[in-house]
Amino acid sequence: MKSALLVMDVQRSVVDLTDAGPEFLHRVRRAMDGARSAGIPVIHVTIALRPGFPEVGTHNRALSAIAQAGLYVEGAAGTEIHPEVAPLPGEVVVTKRRASAFSGSDLDVVLRARGIDSLVLTGIATGAVVLSTLCQANDLDFGLTVLADACLDPDPEVHRVLTERLFPQWARVLGVDDWAGGLAARRDRS
Q: Which residues form the Isochorismatase-like domain (predicted)?
């Protein structure tokens, strides 16, 4: 299997709104460093909506609330990837228009072009982008791993239930250290 690490919605405004502290950003960074050392592509996924929010329908409660608050407008400073987890030159940045990393983006095209059939998921929020992407990726037959401690939700109970009860039905759920340690052990055996 050929994997990619997805770093999803770790943007300035999302980090600020969820109070994602330096420990969380450090864990995401460790996952990115582990992936890069193992030759696993790191793909950054951001949410950005067009000015005026033409892609937001009135029936979509979550996006309607985002539009009313004026959040995640394409080109605004808050939509930038947080500098602690900034992409390296040449790393792909995908812009999505909905909760799932696949919705309104070219993520599937990028993955298929690279022959990637397995995804490692990180991001904010566990109950939004991570859950939506996991469901869609599962339906698309990707192998899946969720790095539970590199995912964050404003509601700790939502995060716990998803990572302990729901996600294990579809994916391996690991911590960053276990995942990165496994990568290093494979590299050492080679």
A: 3-177
